[in-house]
Amino acid sequence: MGPYLLRRLVQSALILLGVSFITFVLLYVLPADPVRQIAGRSATAATVESIRRQLGLDQPFLVQYGRYLFGLIQGDLGRSYLQKTEVAALIASRLPATLLLMAGAIVCELVLGLAMGIAAALWRGRAADQVLMTTSFVTVSAPQFVVGLLLLYVFAVWLRWFPIGGYGTFAHLVLPALTLGILGSGWYARMMRSSMIDVLRADFIRTARAKGLGRGRVVLRHALPNAILPVIAMIGIDIGIFMGGIVVVESVFGWPGIGQLAWQAIQRVDIPIIMGVTLVSACAIVIGNLLADLIAPMIDPRIRLR
Amino acid sequence: MSAVADRPSGIHKIPDGAPILSVQNLTVSVRTEAGLKPLVRDLSFDLGRGETLAIAGESGSGKSITSLAVMGLLPPPAVRVTGGAIRFGGTDLTRLPEARMRALRGDRIAMIFQEPMTSLNPVMTVGDQLTEAIRAHAPVSRKDARARALEALKAVRLSQPEQRLDQFPHELSGGMRQRVMIAMALALKPEVLIADEPTTALDVTVQREVLDLLRDLQRDLGTAIILITHDMGVVAEMADRVIVMRQGEAVEEAATGDLFARPAMPYTRDLLAAVPRMGAGAARPPVTGEPVARLDDVVVRFPIREGVFSAVRRQVHAVEHVSLQIRRGETFALVGESGCGKSTVARAMVGLVPHQGRIEIAGQPLEGLGRAGLKALRRRIQMVFQDPMAALDPRMTVSDLITEPLVIHRIGTPAEREARAVDLMQKVGLSADQLRRYPHEFSGGQRQRICIARALALKPDLIIADESVSALDVSVQARVLDLLRALQTEFGIAFLFISHDMAVVENISDRVAVMYLGQIVETGTRAQVFGNPQHSYTRRLIEAVPVPDPAHVRPPTVRLAGDVPSPVHKVGDGPARVRLVDVGEGHLVAEG
Hints:
The structure holds two protein chains of two kinds.
Chain A: H1 2-29, H2 34-39, H3 45-55, H4 61-73, H5 87-122, H6 127-141, H7 144-158, H8 170-200, H9 203-210, H10 215-227, H11 229-253, H12 258-267, H13 271-299
Chain B: H1 2-6, E1 21-32, E2 35-47, E3 52-56, H2 63-71, E4 79-88, E5 91-92, H3 98-104, E6 109-112, H4 126-135, H5 142-155, H6 161-165, H7 174-186, E7 192-196, H8 204-221, E8 224-229, H9 232-238, E9 241-246, E10 249-255, H10 256-261, H11 266-274, E11 291-306, E12 311-327, E13 331-335, H12 342-349, E14 356-361, E15 364-365, H13 371-378, E16 381-384, H14 388-391, H15 398-408, H16 414-427, H17 444-456, E17 462-466, H18 474-491, E18 494-499, H19 502-508, E19 511-516, E20 519-525, H20 526-531, H21 536-544, E21 568-570, E22 580-582, E23 588-590
Parallel strand pairs in B: 3-8, 3-9, 6-7, 7-8, 13-18, 13-19, 16-17, 17-18
Antiparallel strand pairs in B: 1-2, 1-4, 4-5, 9-10, 11-12, 11-14, 12-21, 14-15, 19-20, 20-23, 22-23
């Protein structure tokens, strides 16, 4: 366990280094000029050049990256070009909201996805199975803003059950979390269904039934823990996909998380914020995968971490 | 026993004398696109208290479907009982609602299955699985259930039972897992136990232990057993009565002694004739051709990588100092139980695993051969595996499958290859017009013939048959063995025949080597090894084979509970090397 964790941590650090480099390159070659954004349209060439020098953007690429990396190692994510604050502080103020949304969304998508998948597996081949699988297909292919706006219209505008947007109470969380959850649930439903069907055919399920156990116990105690393993591995990967969806959903619902921060930063070419958000997202994915890998052996004793 | 009346099933104790289970005109059908197709037709039998009834038959005979029908576990919704009754103490199980059937299952009628490796839930401890079975029927506390589970494990003579409760199935060997299954089935002292091929997946010596155990428990508990099996040896040893089934129908029912002594029906006679028997192999003149394969002091070890730096501290000693020679036209058998290294020897011979020592094929050493050299050498050796369905690509036609080795080695024009395929199909007893078909359109035996045709395509000197007939029904097995013999006579091919089935080996081989823990412990001609076995392990293997003769009296043997020691050793601390001593005319036996 100890050696395993150590190796994974080193691996994670290398992944983050790679992510920082690739993002830096992409932002460097971007045709948009951050200095123009800061200086404004009417600025003189001299002002533009002085700002460029001030930000160190006149330096060669490797020097710029080296400086950034040096700061990064000390935990310094740099300062925002436009907001004139520490990026770390900006992200820290936004992160709790995003983590809350993410947790809510994962809960929604797991509950919906697993329930749909298990139900479809138990009724496989029947009408209910087809309805559930068609639904899952629709949710997988629907764009986030469509689902978000639809939920907003029905539950906030029409039924007035939930607030239209904002942040603060549990009621504010429901619609954005549900939007992300519904979108993700189709994947889980499909994966859970096929995994469950495989497990239900297994010999040990027949053994469990031969013992005289009830259907509920056979499904929940014997089939589910075996069928859920591939799903757990997917949660780790899924966090990455979430980060994309969160940008859209946060702006639809006015959710003050890092998705909105990133969106504004991209529009204004605020490079330090874009870098910071990218790295935080990469961290989330790395941690998510690590957690998924650590949880798996708790469910299946045959999996050994090496 | 008042406990019986308290049981929630609501079915009361069955009076003595009456059959405990009575199957009457049972018909089980599967729903297909072409309507209902019967899998079991009009089957009737009675099972008496404490009796063992064997239902014997080959694959597709409906014997397993019958057992699942009794348990109410037919796979819904396609397969169901479409006629007749299964009476258990006056209640018709086929009409029982699921909730009441569930109360019976595991409590009054229990079942054990063929595959101990997959029949236990891999993510639950043995203890949890046992207590769960007990608590499903008996209103006892967790603690009491655990105590009863422990008792059950002791009853099946499992070593270190307390420790086993907290272990997971993958930590136990196949034999141990089957003991756990039996413990689970018998923990509640059911009146009926259905054992579906309970020892088929086990090694012979483990099979012997499990059969002995079942018999002892039956004597103690008075359980009636329905034994589903394809193995007439197991039938002869275990059953009081036998029903022979074929294609869903009972062919013959008789007391075991009568059935073996005077089989009434032609099918039964054929089935019994096809069973390989020890001592039935005809003596053949010794083969004196030049060696096609020669192994000298071959060692195969697999490193186990552990820790931060993946250091190798321990290794699996799969094959240890094996030396043997196979001559042209000879059948050399390697026998031993699972994990003894017999398949690894074969894999080393075709260069699939790295080895130390010396391997010569057709006079050419395998060591130091490059890619091209190895490929050329592989023309000389071909393999036929255990599971023909897994060994044939389902998306290729038979023609493509058989000619693929020729394509790989760039032999002949397409027309010549096709002609060769036609010729090979006839050689293995199939017809040329089947060449355009796909593997799934053939039966198991036919598929194995296709594998043999493919192996013959390159005209090899040596065919390695790794458990090639183990998965086949006895009647099919007998025909495939005949085919192998005929091909050997015609082409002078040598066979390395790897098997765990002592009776088959005794029938087909010229010379035999017995392997144990990676080493050869006895080798010689068939007559030497089987007629005059010297090593205690060889004797144990031979004595463990069930004899298809109810009159056979088994000499009392020491009951061995316990497993083969591990072949994993620390680096630099290998197993003791056995020394082979010649006890006469090339009959080599390990000392000690």
